């Protein structure tokens, strides 16, 4: 295994530990990462509420449940994130719900700013975008796929807006949050199910 990935895995935390960390930071009016600001602390509070809601309300359709539960390759999903990241707050609870359906899938979480060497191995268009999922085969110790920072439909939505306006505006970011709330994690479920089918084609035959 790549030593940087190995080191990050050794210093990773479970989903429950990450949720507890975000909750604690929200209570302390703080945030994870190298930069501490009031805005990032406020985003952390908002994300704590978002994740709490998604933990209770995400529903995985039966057909996806079946495909996910039949995936028989032991894998670790190493997720890079920070407490203040809006996309991550919507995506990571869905990934956790998916992993709960299959004991072969193990979720580990690390903070980006504590793992910049790892982050720089998995840039998105040259940027340190999160949440980023590194899917590792436990047997071969190799990276079999990556996912993120956003689900496919949100990525298209963002790219179209950037192409037209050059950068994301505060109004657009608010629209994106509405998209997440309306989608209820279904696009992430579709994307991940598709990836599992690519890794193990028999699931989708």
TrEMBL record:
Origin superkingdom: Bacteria
Alphabetical list of InterPro entries matching this protein: Thioredoxin-like_sf
SUPFAM superfamilies listed in its UniProt record: Thioredoxin-like
Pfam families: Thioredoxin_9 (PF14595)
Protein name: Thioredoxin family protein
């Amino acid at each position: 295994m790549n030593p940087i990935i190995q080191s990050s895995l050794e210093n990773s935390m479970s989903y429950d530990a990450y949720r507890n960390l975000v909750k604690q930071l929200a209570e302390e009016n703080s945030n994870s990462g190298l930069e501490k600001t009031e805005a990032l602390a406020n985003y952390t509070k908002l994300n704590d509420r978002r994740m709490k809601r998604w933990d209770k309300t995400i529903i995985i359709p039966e057909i996806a449940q079946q495909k996910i539960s039949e995936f028989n390759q032991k894998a670790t999903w190493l997720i890079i994130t920070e407490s203040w990241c809006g996309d991550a707050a919507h995506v990571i609870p869905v990934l956790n719900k998916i992993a709960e359906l299959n004991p072969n899938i193990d979720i580990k979480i690390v903070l980006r700013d504590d793992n910049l060497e790892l982050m720089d191995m998995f840039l998105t268009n040259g940027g340190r975008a999160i949440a980023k999922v590194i899917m590792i085969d436990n047997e071969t110790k190799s990276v079999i796929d990556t996912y993120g920072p956003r689900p496919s439909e949100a990525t298209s939505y963002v790219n179209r807006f950037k192409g037209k306006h050059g950068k994301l505006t505060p109004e657009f970011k608010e629209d994106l949050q509405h998209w997440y709330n309306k989608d209820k994690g279904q696009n992430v479920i579709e994307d991940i199910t598709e990836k599992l089918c690519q890794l193990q084609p028999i699931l989708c035959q």
